[in-house]
User: Fold ADP-ribosylglycohydrolase family protein from Neobacillus piezotolerans.
Amino acid sequence: MITFQDKVRGAVLSVALGDALGAPIEKLSYQEIKDKYGRVESLRTKWYKEDAPPEVNLGRHRGNGIVTDDTLMTKALINVYLKEKRHLDAYDMGKEFIKEIAFRKTYIPEFQNEALIIDRLFYPEKYIFVRHVLANCEPREGGIGNMINCGAAMYITPIGIVNAGNPKAAYDEAILFAMGHQSSYGLEAAGVLAACIARAFTPGVTVDDIVDTAISLSKDGTRNAIIDLTSAAKELREKNSDMDEVVETLHSVIAKYSPMKDNVHRKIEKVGIPSNHYTPSRLFSIEELPLALAFIVLNKGEYYKSIYDGINSGRDTDSIGVMIGAILGSMYGNQAITRADIDLLESTNKMNLLQTADDFAKTAREIIEADLRLNEERKKLF
Assistant:
């Protein structure tokens, strides 16, 4: 029997695993990964920038299980729950979450020393500091004007966990919290991923159940992208397509909803050139979540195969790995992950991920039990 604690462990560990597997090849195209590595299936993968000069790799380190900001911000959100012991909203983003990322030092594996998480963050995540601390915004309007990306979805796993078994509540809380950081389809993806994770905690859940949950709650371009990508994945699975055909097909389908394609780098040549990249839209979707669900469908929920296929497809490889890992880790628990991978993740990143998960499982259980007691009280109204 897979316990609630097992599932929380699985979710937390799998965020780190998917992150660390995808990190060394992030922003490479599918073909570049294939040419440089063949196929990545190990945490002990050398970062393609490791031997580059400091002006290129910025003095950072990846590979050998090192995680990125996806895991650091997930852990930061867990810390907020451990402190508050209740459901959260945008006001907690603007008060407590910002303290975790911008005022309290922690070990940053890519820096190999202690620093503030914000020193590691990309601009749309630094935007949280700009809006809530510098601009002193109304917290629920914090995400307005930000670059639309997967930045909120990548750390939203804890919200799915504190709403385990209640996808709609997970969706709602994720939206209420992440609106302090993101808007448009970037915000929508956070809500849908949280819902998928909440559904994954249900005993006997199937991949189809999770996809149905995503489709039932998602809106606009996100919903259409999930439908199209998972439908394409089913057809590819039935054809027993090879990876070349899988990636070509899935990328051609997502192109309708995400116009950047392999052009994910920010270079001087792109400055001032108008485009739809990262702009609000009811017709667009981030790539990572629909692709994550597609690779889960393609592999019928097989744990490592789904993550490996996802990260090897290219582009935002670490966040794709995080989302696949979070969903499947919630389904299968920590038993799905090899002990060797757990040990390497904990030692390399100087994180006691199992202890973090266990502490969070206790808090999440308390929050859920309080919800259940409230539901019992509500029944008395009728």
Q: What stands out?
A: The mean pLDDT is 97. The beta strands are 105-108, 113-116. The longest strand covers residues 105-108.
